[in-house]
Design brief:
This protein has one domain. By secondary structure, it is mostly helical. It has 15 helices and no strands. Helix content is 82%, strand content 0%.
Length: 311
């Protein structure tokens, strides 16, 4: 199974790399750059969120490990964590954002790469984090002011936070971050080399391309939906049925649809209420990033608990 999923993910990375290059052509770039934030929100809700919509199945698996049989325990715990993250963001927006970016870097780096790596060492965990940090450093490096504007929409009014960001930009610290991320990709690439590890650099250059040509929101949407989410969904399909990918795709859609629809419904309701106090685009940005943060933390914790207890 491991070789099969490596082959599929390599093809996926190659297609995504071509996709990024083609849509970066001037006439297509202009059309994509005109995409409204609402389209980005819909893509994230339909494609992006669905890759975590089987968490309830993993929750049942975790309950079995702990010898519990009441699924309401999982739903209550999951929902409680989502609400807690949102409250923390409202009270401590800058601190919560920083923690979220750290966790997201590790999450993106690990889930986009771990199918290529057999050894689960502390060094590899660090390399995953550094590799995934490219998702954070690239928009700051190529579109610093636009990225800061997004942060301002996320309830962050701490002037020290923005002074520190300006210090990072003015002292070329972003170059250092990009270099570390590049070195981590090289190290993961050459360690126990095999041809399918070119996936790492296809992903690396794709992320740089979309962040160079597009605004931070569009670049993140392209990455999150069409690279990260699809890759994670492929791994979930293999868990459902590794022998027939078409059948597993249909099973995945059927199982993912209920929670995807439920999440989309709550998000649209949230957008309605946010739009009463903020501009439409500002409401969408809050919904995307604060909403993703509230879903990412319990998603990562669930993955960690299952991985740890299965060992």
């Amino acid at each position: 199974m491991n070789n099969k999923i490596k082959k599929i993910n390599f093809k996926h990375s190659f297609i995504f790399f071509l996709f990024c290059n083609i849509f970066s052509l001037p006439f297509l770039k202009t059309s994509i750059s005109a995409i409204q934030p609402f389209i980005c929100l819909l893509l994230i809700l339909i494609i992006g969120v669905s890759h975590g919509s089987l968490d309830h199945i993993k929750g049942k698996k975790l309950l079995r490990i702990f010898k519990l049989d009441n699924i309401s325990i999982f739903y209550f715990s999951y929902l409680l964590m989502v609400i807690t993250i949102i409250i923390f963001w409202i009270i401590f927006p800058a601190i919560t954002l920083i923690i979220f970016l750290i966790f997201a870097s590790f999450h993106f780096g690990k889930e986009d790469t771990q199918f290529l790596i057999d050894e689960n060492s502390y060094l590899n965990q660090l390399l995953f984090f550094l590799k995934g940090s490219l998702i954070i450093f690239a928009p700051l490096f190529f579109h610093f002011d636009d990225t800061v504007t997004i942060f301002k929409f996320l309830l962050i009014e701490n002037e020290n936070f923005y002074q520190n960001l300006s210090f990072i930009e003015n002292n070329k610290i972003l170059y250092f971050g990009l270099i570390l991320s590049t070195i981590s990709s090289i190290f993961l690439f050459i360690k126990k080399f095999e041809i399918k590890k070119f996936t790492i650099f296809l992903d690396y250059f794709s992320i740089l391309i979309v962040n160079y040509y597009f605004t931070p929101l569009i670049a993140f949407t392209i990455y999150f939906c069409f690279l990260h989410s699809i890759r994670h969904s492929i791994s979930l399909m293999f868990e459902l049925d590794q022998n027939n990918l078409i059948d597993s795709f249909l099973i995945f859609i059927k199982k993912a649809l209920p929670l995807t629809i439920l999440t989309t419904t709550f998000c649209l309701i949230g957008l309605y209420f946010l739009n009463k106090n903020y501009s439409f685009d500002s409401s969408i940005l809050k919904l995307i990033f604060i909403g993703l943060a509230s879903l990412t933390f319990p998603h990562i914790l669930l993955e960690y608990l299952i991985e740890k207890n299965e060992k």
